[in-house]
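Journal club side-thread
Mid-discussion, someone asked how the predicted structure for our own chain would compare to the paper's figures. Pasting it here so we can look after the session.
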Amino acid sequence: MAVALSSAIGYDEAVLPVNGAVPGPWTVPFNAQIDSEIVTVISGGQTSWECLRAQNNTQAQGHASGATVLPLAPFPIVQTLGPTNFIAETMPREQMPETATIICTTTQIALQAIWLSAGQLVTNISVCTSATAASVPTHYALGLYDGLGNLCASSVDQLTTAMTTQTLYTFAMSTPYRVALSGLYYVAFGFVGTTVPTLKGVARVNGTLAGTAPSLSGVSGTAYASGALPATCAIMAAGAVTTSWWAGVS
């Protein structure tokens, strides 16, 4: 439910200060209506409030309340030649050699780091298979974890749906996830079957740097059995990373 700002500083029975702590009982993030716009207040500071604009504008704007209204960030966070309508990638598509990457074995959860910006909406996650198809899949799901291993979004169990070679697959999240805080997230792939498909990725000669915490990719210590991905996931420990794989968010 949005907090209605009837004036620059007033909403309902409380006051939105120009700076300082969020007035009770509200805690960030919360939705607020500033004039005709719905924004999400994500922090308060000494000089202004940080808000997210609901519309797809590209310029930050000030408000008489002291709020800084930022764009929704529907655009990629890095300049890439990513597929149409994608808002983020684990690695730039034009720099990825499309190596056939082995990401995990059956019952494991593979993780690949991705940077997401506050306000982006994760509706779908896509991966592209390489030279090896999925063999006798029984359960698999894709999703997104935050940097602490908390599940943000997951697809439904894909069960025995085939994954053939050299194909871009897009998986809808059961509930789209609005990114609350900019930062490091992990695309996750859990699989049960005879053979996990290889994904388009990159092989590393020596993964020491890529494995330094926070690790760019690897396998979680949490097992995957069936259904949506687990609510929590043990992020992999720092170590050598020999492969990384491409995934995109749209």
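Post-session note: Residues 3-70 form one domain.
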